[in-house]
Amino acid sequence: MVGAGGIGCELLKTLALSGFQDIHIIDMDTIEVSNLNRQFLFRQSHVGQSKAKVARDVVLRFMPRICITPYHANVKDPEFNVDFFKKFNVILNGLDNLDARRHVNRLCLAAEVPLVESGTTGFLGQVTVHIKGRTECYECQPKPTPKTYPVCTITSTPSKFVHCIVWAKDLLFAKLFGDRNQENDLFVHTGDGSDSIYDHVFGYNIEVALANEETWKNRRRPRPIFLGDVLPEKLILQNGNHEKNCLTEDLSLSAMSSLGLNNPQEIWSLAENSRLFLEALRLFIERRGKDIGSLTFDKDDQLAIEFVTAIANIRASSFGIPLHSLFDAKGIAGNIVHAVATTNAIIAGLIVIEAIKVLEADFQNCRMTYCLEHPCQKMLLMPVEPFEANKSCYVCSETPLLLEVNTQTSTLRDFVDKIVKNKLGMSFPLIMQGAILIFEGGDDLEEDIAANYALNLDKVLTALPAPVTSGSMLTVEDLQQELSCHINIKHREEFDEEKEPDRMVLLGWTTPEKESQGVSNGENTAAAIPASPEAINKSEEVEVTAEISRTKRKLSEMTEVQEIFQILPDTDANNSMDPQEVEDNDYDNDLIVLDENPEASKKRRLYQLLLYKVILFLPSSINISSWMHNWNDDMIVIFGQTSYGYCYIHNERILTRRSTICHRRLLLSIILAVATQNKGISCSV
Length: 685
Description:
ThiF_NAD_FAD-bd; Ubiquitin-activating_enz; Arc Repressor Mutant, subunit A; ubl conjugation pathway; SUMO activating enzyme activity; single chain; ATP-binding; globular
């Protein structure tokens, strides 16, 4: 098992009590105080010790006869290679970051060892099973990448509080306390006046920005804030209790306690945030002056969090953005999603269930299970059959990718950092064009070879020893992960700075149709809807209601012709049905296909298939309970349920109960949008 944190503690306990005899744990982290509220194997006395080793010792106290081997190390270390992974029957993941998950997934594919993946987010969670040759791999569905923001938005025109947080921690905090060799006009020296920094940042800089009238034509103008306008001079001089923090450790220093601001969930006023700014800056200079010049933002550094919160709130006040509490600001700055111990326990139990199925080779009964926050059809756990491998996945299907990039301005370093390491998740990449080696990364390279490759990093792509131009194909490998992929290069001049800040777009890695129903955060309500007509076994037939005498139809019979058809608008304005409640039946999960005439025309069968595909593309917020097509009166009815109430679709019109006109239009737009995007189908209204 990889990870001995929130899920890992519960998982190790459950494995031990379930009869597993030989368990290996890998975790590089040490125990922190913040872990103790949910990682129940750890106590206050364990703070600072290895999670993997302490977890082993604690479990052996109540299960002394089993064998547990801990590794206090990074799973990406060279010792944990493909040969290491081949020693195990199954790998169980309890990780908390995308990079490590991708790395383990690739090693499991190379070693051909089944992987049971998991994750939780608050009340949501999921467990997925990945078996090479049988199911999709972890990376068959592209994962969301961390949100990035254009520098111009962050520095000049923030519109959200998150913009202020990013500016505070990544720009201003770094300028004040970061690299002392970096050229800037704000670097803090002992004895600097806090009020002058305040006025420069929040007053003078805003006045300079306001001088550009063009920028504010269609935007709300910010207001300059000077310290003298917010706090009286006497209060500035008397700010804070200077004795309260005199014996406090560096990382526990608190400007809040000096000022009597004891509630981190309270939203402080502009004046209180200004006082917090002054006090935090004073404490940094007086108590942590030796660290100034090498500090980086750390969400576990109390003083840094307070300082960033104060900065972000003052800037938000200047730009007319609502202020936030320190509790909220810490969550945004540290990308924190507060954990729920119960969710971890549920997910750990599901991991063990799937692990037992894998060990018994009961692959046909393996399930991806999603834990929901709110009941769906009276269930909180939604099991889904594992999907087949995505044929466009570059990891398990070796599909070539396409990179749109300006080859004349982008450097090899940009390509390595933004695409190879960030997007593709490779640790020690090797890049080739044809037979020419352009770059190789790794700690074991000889100095002269590493220096030679380093010279290439700052060259634009067209200036490399083997010039990379439009039409070139690069081969990128990671020898540790035993992964290789091909990237076709396409030159592109213009990029949208807002949507494409990297000025590089990686294409060719798409989600298959069946995955549109699955989401990684556990909100999946499509457990009973097959992935596609082709995915249904030919021996399986769709159930029909007994009291109506019509012929059962296999969905596989509906895929005979691949032509483009158009959904015509309903022209009969009087042909409508009154909204009615749909019975909430736990077992009413099947698609119901009624066909009175087995010899129906090809066009009708395709029309039926079209509606079926539309249903498959509905988002998980709409739970389809049944679908009926009656050829007698040419009526198509789709019953569904949303968070707004029941609804059904009569032909191309949507009728809802307990919902608004706006919501009906939204549902109709969703159906038309997804149907239009579906290959080979177009819609009009």
